[in-house]
Amino acid sequence: MSLTLSRSSLIRTENFIAGHWVGSDGGSTFGVHNPADLRQIASVPDSTHDDAWQAADSAQSAFKAWKSTPAKRRGQLLKQWHALVMSHQDDLGRLISLEQGKPLAEGRGEIQYAASYIEWFAEEAPRIEGDLIEPSVDGRRMLAVREPVGVVAVVTPWNFPAAMIARKMAPALAAGCTVVAKPAEDTPLTSLALIHLAEEAGIPAGVINVVCASRECTPAVADAWLRDTRVRKISFTGSTPVGKQLARESAATLKKLSLELGGNAPFIVFDDADLDAAVEGLMASKFRNGGQTCVCPNRVYVHETVFNTFAYKLTDRVAALRVGPASETDSQIGPMINTRAVEKIMKHIDDAVAKGGKILVGGQQVRTDIGPNYVAPTVLADVSSDAQLCQEETFGPVVPLCRFTGEEEVIGMANNTPYGLAGYFYSGNISRIWRVADALETGIVGINEGVVASEVAPFGGIKESGYGREGSKYGLDDYMHIKYLCQGSLG
């Protein structure tokens, strides 16, 4: 199977500023590579501080007109964008697989997921409402109205290059904000293709602006937006250390922030759980995108009375997973994003074994004929709580199994982390379900369910996993502020 696109014009290799496709002012570029075989796919601009500033100029110039565009019209333009994304979902899915490595079925699935956010916020735009407040004294009228915050800077990760740009841009545009964006250096092509379709949909010039930057030049781009008083909000998905840095450096201009940061999700299997359902839920949540998701289970706690049975059932399923490039239709686990990711995963596995963990399946790097960035899907038993697998986000196809004996004990283990993005548990006891759901310190809880993300639900974490919510009816809140109006002398 070829990963070539039927519409090659979707592959854009320039920045998009003020409605024009342009190179970097400095003329520099960097390469985008297929993680499956390390082949260079394209070169894109390696943007500078000046490029980022020009993007902000464009967004600020477009803001007044876009803010004044009726919400219904903004929604119509988003619907036109949604229609174009869906009509190109096969090509866009191939592009994701080409630059990110995930199996083709998952690439197509991500496009549908991304499009769902565009459609949702297209429909939410006309529902932006305020409140009429009962006045406290005679002769007044008091109102609360919601307004767009202004220019929004969007910084997205490499693991979901379509979904993350859509999940951030769609509510910003629906609210009446204009956008400057920097896609991840590993996967800029999908984001640029989506923006090309937004342009075709008729979204006005300057409303969306995108600049690419390598890992080395990203700080200069981010610094331009952090210092720019016209940029009123930053929406970032990525690591907790970077999120903390953005929070510190945005304080000088008091920007609004949405931070979706690191996770260390627990997955708990109680002794009264449906074990087959729990295995299916774990397979769906853990091995999607090869374990390279922020909400995938990172620590799996299984009650000691069902531990061996669960481990056997899980190992049997994991052993059957097919590792290979997206260009092979039967591939279920694609390459990791780069060699750094592989090195981290293998380091975590070696550390767990050194601390007493037992490899039940996998445990090794898979060197295929076309590239080195593959790791065998792995299950380890009796992993120590102080192993790196349990302390840090692994971001790979590795399941560490830990035993527990009681509910209170496992809740303590699950919450013993600075992170609080997602948590999962399986139980057939309705009283336990509500006790555990209340006790877990996470922003998202999957109860007898392994796939929790949806455009209709609020997505986000607590503690050091960040703040702000994306998706759902709450998703517009972070892109708007409330203005109070008080008119007097009416009586």
Automatic annotation (TrEMBL):
The keyword Methyltransferase does not apply. Keywords: Oxidoreductase. InterPro entries: Ald_DH/histidinol_DH (IPR016161), Ald_DH_C (IPR016163), Ald_DH_CS_CYS (IPR016160), Ald_DH_CS_GLU (IPR029510), Ald_DH_N (IPR016162), Aldehyde_DH_dom (IPR015590), Aldehyde_DH_Superfamily (IPR050740). It comes from the Bacteria. Residues 21-484 form the Aldehyde dehydrogenase domain. One of its GO terms (molecular function) is succinate-semialdehyde dehydrogenase (NAD+) activity. One of its GO terms (biological process) is gamma-aminobutyric acid catabolic process. It holds the Pfam family Aldedh. The keyword Oxidoreductase applies. The active site is at E260. SUPFAM superfamilies: ALDH-like. Belongs to the aldehyde dehydrogenase family. This is Succinate semialdehyde dehydrogenase. It comes from Aidingimonas halophila. The lineage of its organism: Bacteria, Pseudomonadati, Pseudomonadota, Gammaproteobacteria, Oceanospirillales.
